[in-house]
Specification:
Low-confidence stretches: none
CATH class of the largest domain: Alpha Beta
Structural class: alpha/beta
Number of strands: 9
CATH superfamily of the largest domain: Metal-dependent hydrolases
Strand content: 15-25%
Bound molecules: adenosine monophosphate, fe (iii) ion, zinc ion
Shape: globular
Helix content: 25-40%
Largest sheet: 9 strands, mixed
Number of domains: 2
CATH architecture of the largest domain: Alpha-Beta Barrel
CATH topology of the largest domain: TIM Barrel
Number of helices: 9
């Protein structure tokens, strides 16, 4: 497989917690020879139009995307929506709800930080043309000299269980899948081994999600071992799911996860993007 046949279907831009603009992600994709890229920001589709425009200029295929946190029973998960219409009114209204919840949750995190004696204010965060979350708070804590690294900010204050942590709202997986699907998109389970590295509970979870309209799972991911990859590939095949894959690129915010994956990672074949596009087209045919 040449680089021209590979894609990256999981990236974050400056509209959420990545450091590059959507246009810069596409430029980098072009530079490293990727054939296609999806911008999948947390809780927003605001970067899709810019990426699409730059993709048309540079000849890089851009798949629209979004990443939404959701829950089902005891599980929390991230769902990727591919091929969505970025301005779909119902999808936008769900995303607006999530954005408002983030603002409120950030306030709770700041209240906790203040309670711990740390003088920071939510108004010191960057102007919100995107989704502001814990990574931005971590950077602010560095600027203020409270911690030295992002890791330190998370481990001392912001990770779940740490003293400044506040829970975010979690929408039901059914609602996220429905919002993605009715917007013309396909819903995929992101980094399926994220909370379950031994994949002990993955099969029943995938079955339930599939019954709710899940179209696929993220098979290629930097932390997947060959063992995980083959287990997920078999499960996905058995359940009739599509596959996606990407690096979860965040730019300088996570330098250990480069666009297109690290040397030695399995490259993500272009064929996956083509199959997702095809799936979206079928999904949007009006039913009589
Ligand atoms: P939020 O959406 O505000 O809950 O923040 C979640 C983001 O924080 C995710 O994109 C993660 O990549 C990032 N994150 C979570 N834990 C860590 C950590 N220990 N170090 C750096 N980034 C993290
Ligand atoms: Fe992120
Ligand atoms: Fe994620
Ligand atoms: Zn992500």
């Amino acid at each position: 497989m040449t680089a021209m046949d590979t894609v990256d279907l999981h990236t974050h831009s400056s509209y959420s917690d990545g450091s590059l603009t959507p246009g810069q992600i596409v430029e980098l994709a072009k530079k490293i020879g990727l054939r296609g890229v999806a911008v999948t920001d947390h809780d927003t589709t605001a970067g899709v139009a810019e990426a699409t425009r730059r993709g048309e200029e540079l000849g890089v295929e851009v798949l629209s995307g979004v990443e939404i946190g959701a829950g089902l029973d005891d599980h929390t998960m991230h769902l990727l929506g591919y091929g969505i219409r970025p301005n779909d009114p119902k999808l936008l209204s769900l995303l607006r709800l999530l954005q408002e919840a983030r603002v409120e949750r950030n306030r709770r995190i700041f209240a906790r930080l203040n309670h711990l004696g740390i003088q920071v204010m939510a108004t010191e965060l960057p102007a919100a043309d995107g989704q502001i979350g814990r990574p931005h708070i971590a950077r602010l804590l560095i600027t203020k000299g409270v911690v030295r690294t992002i890791d330190q900010a998370f481990s001392r204050f912001l990770r779940r269980g740490a003293p400044a942590y506040a829970e975010n709202i979690r929408i039901p997986a059914a609602q996220a899948i429905e919002a993605i699907t009715q917007a013309g998109g396909l819903a995929f389970l992101a980094h399926p081994a994220g909370n379950d590295p031994k994949l002990q509970n993955i099969e029943p979870l995938l079955r339930k999600l599939k019954a709710l309209g899940l179209a696929g799972l993220e098979l290629y991911y930097p932390t997947h071992t060959p063992q995980m990859h083959s287990t997920l590939e078999r499960l996905g095949r058995d359940l009739g799911l599509l596959f996606s894959g990407g690096s979860d690129f965040h730019g300088a915010a996570k330098p250990h996860m480069p666009l297109g994956g690290r040397a030695g990672d399995r490259p993500v074949p272009f064929q996956l993007l083509a199959a997702i596009r095809e799936g979206c087209r079928i999904e949007t045919v009006p039913r009589h």
